[in-house]
Amino acid sequence: MTRRSPRLAGVLSCALVAGALLTTASCSSEDGDRDGSRVSEVTASQVAGERQTPSPSPTATLTEDGARSALITEADIEDDWTQVKQTEAEDWHDNLLIGTVDVSDFLTARTDAADCQRLLDALFGDNLLGRPSGVSALRGFTQGDSRLLYQVASYDRTDSQDSLNWMASLPQKCAQFTATAKGEQRTVQVIETPLPEVGDAREGLRVTVQGTAGGTQATLTLDVAAVRVGDDAITVTAGGLDGGEQDSVDQAVKLGTQRLKDVLAGKTPSSNPSLFD
Fold first, then answer.
1. What is the dihedral of CA 66, 68, 74, 76, to 10 degrees?
2. Residue 154 in contact with residue 134, Cβ under 8 Å?
3. What is the Cα–Cα distance from 258 to 262, expressed in whole angstroms?
């Protein structure tokens, strides 16, 4: 085997670096630079880095097993939440969310009334982002008189993003309105709530409904969150007559988004979350 001399190897190395940087600076000899000229201090890794292009993230289709694996567990949320049976969670529908929006509240923008009606219907039907185009899974938890419903589903990306954009418009369109059910009026308020910076897009809301439950005045408070991860999304609805559950929603969003990302990457979600403060 013919071995290159150290001096020749040094010349070739300098020529490669010089060509990559499109510079006319000359390389110094192995014995050092005696005429005072210096070579640009660029490492081989820097040159290689300039040539690299990031590889696209692998895409994965969420399966039924994957959707179930992406669901949060009792260990993922703080406090004393207890998981309920699947059938019980599927049957959760709060009657305070039933009502017909009073269009007279929207004299300047009647189309806003339709958006507010859509919100009430979506919360009652547990389909905040619309009907999934693919697989879906849900899990419910209770804590005292509060409930937390967590869902994972596949959507057409355009549909889910449109739904998130719709959610973002609600604090302005539906800041306060009236809904009527069986002759009883209910006052509904909607405000925006911040969420952890996770996923590709996200929206959070707090919805309060003041009305009558069991013949007595009551206020239902729901904290609602939706996070899109590619073509898939998670939604969280938590609260009840005792008030909202924003801390638990934030925790579910943090760990739930990571669980979904792990599943889509072919990993097994952690059973020992460690994000509690």
1. 30
2. yes
3. 6
Q: Strand, helix or coil at 216?
A: strand
Q: What is the pLDDT of residues 105-134, one digit of tens each?
A: 776 667 789 999 999 999 999 999 999 999
Assess whether pLDDT exceeds 60 at residue 18: no
- pTM of the full predicted structure? 0.76
Q: What angle do CA 233, 160, 76 make, to 5 degrees?
A: 20
Q: What is the DSSP letter of 102?
A: -
Q: Residue 209 is inside which H or E element, if any?
A: strand 201-213
Question: Which pLDDT tens digit goes with each residue over 88-101?
Answer: 999 998 999 999 99
Residue 32 CB neighbour total at 10 angstroms: 6
Beta strand pairing call for 201-213 and 184-192: antiparallel
Q: Is 196 exposed, middle or buried (0-12, 13-18, 19+ CB in 10 A)?
A: middle
Look up residue 214 and give its DSSP letter: T
